[in-house]
Amino acid sequence: FLANPKFIHEVKDCQAGVIVLRAGDKQKVYGDEAPRAMVIVEDPYAWFAYALQVVEKQTKTFVSGIHPRAIVDETAEVHPTARIDGGAVVEARAKIGAGAWIGSNAVVGEGAQIGDGTHLFPNATVNHGCIVGKRCILHSGSVIGADGFGFAPFKGEWVKIPQIGRAVLGDDVEIGGSTCVDRGALEDTVVGRGSKIDNLVQIAHNCKLGECCVMAGASNLAGSA
């Protein structure tokens, strides 16, 4: 596929059986001719992403059910099409949506909600009361809803401020490995629909991240940003 225009002069010598490119680039390289198979699309890079999603679905194995070594509280609601792997913990009154996948040793806290088709990789954590939307991906080591860093100074010491808000993730959000989204002090910390967060990112308490945002690895948002 031709996504970067700096490679346009290499297309003719390419030995690929099919070339995926924009209509304008096709015209620049071949003019009105069509000497080989081509797929003409608006955005070749996005086409490539969608194509790999199709390939991935053909190679992944998903079997619904609750592993006998998983710990699922009797008051939790787990959709019959969901998958709970061995060592995972689903606490009281938590809700697991249709087709969701809770990986080994992942934890879904008390009253937390996991949307349809969401995947928690092994050792991901969603703490009590937090909400994760549909089709989200939480990679290993990510923590949703840890306490925000809230302390009041008093006589040379620090008094903990209970963090009673939630962390709320919209649909189609991806959270990288060892990334933390803290719960709010009073109101919720929010990550908007379609946002993608890289590894080792810190989103502090009370932050509001809009829709379809991206944050690269090791970047941070301070509290209430």
Describe the 3D structure:
With 225 residues, the protein is mainly beta. It has two helices and 27 strands. The chain has helices at 23-30, 44-59; strands at residues 18-21, 37-40, 65-66, 71-72, 77-78, 83-84, 89-90, 95-96, 101-102, 107-108, 113-114, 119-120, 125-126, 131-132, 137-138, 143-144, 151-154, 157-160, 167-169, 174-175, 180-181, 189-191, 196-197, 202-203, 208-209, 214-215, 220-221. The strands form five sheets. Strands 3-6-9-12-15-20-23-26 form an eight-stranded parallel β-sheet, with no helix packed on it. α1 links the parallel β1 (18-21) and β2 (37-40). The longest helix is centred in the N-terminal third of the chain and has 16 residues, at 44-59. The mean pLDDT is 97.
What topology does this entry show?
Blueprint: E1 18-21, H1 23-30, E2 37-40, H2 44-59, E3 65-66, E4 71-72, E5 77-78, E6 83-84, E7 89-90, E8 95-96, E9 101-102, E10 107-108, E11 113-114, E12 119-120, E13 125-126, E14 131-132, E15 137-138, E16 143-144, E17 151-154, E18 157-160, E19 167-169, E20 174-175, E21 180-181, E22 189-191, E23 196-197, E24 202-203, E25 208-209, E26 214-215, E27 220-221
The backbone outline, from C-alpha atoms, is flat
- SSE topology string: EHEHEEEEEEEEEEEEEEEEEEEEEEEEE
By DSSP, the count of extended strands is: 27
The average pLDDT score comes to 97
Provide a count of the helices: 2
> Which structural class best describes the helix and strand composition?
mainly beta
Q: What proportion of the residues form beta strands (DSSP E)?
A: 25-35%
Largest sheet: 8 strands, parallel
Note the gap between the termini: 39 Å
Q: Largest sheet, order of strands side by side?
A: 3-6-9-12-15-20-23-26
* Helix residue percentage: 10-25%
- Uncertain segments of ≥5 residues (pLDDT<50)? none
Rg from alpha-carbon coordinates: 22 Å
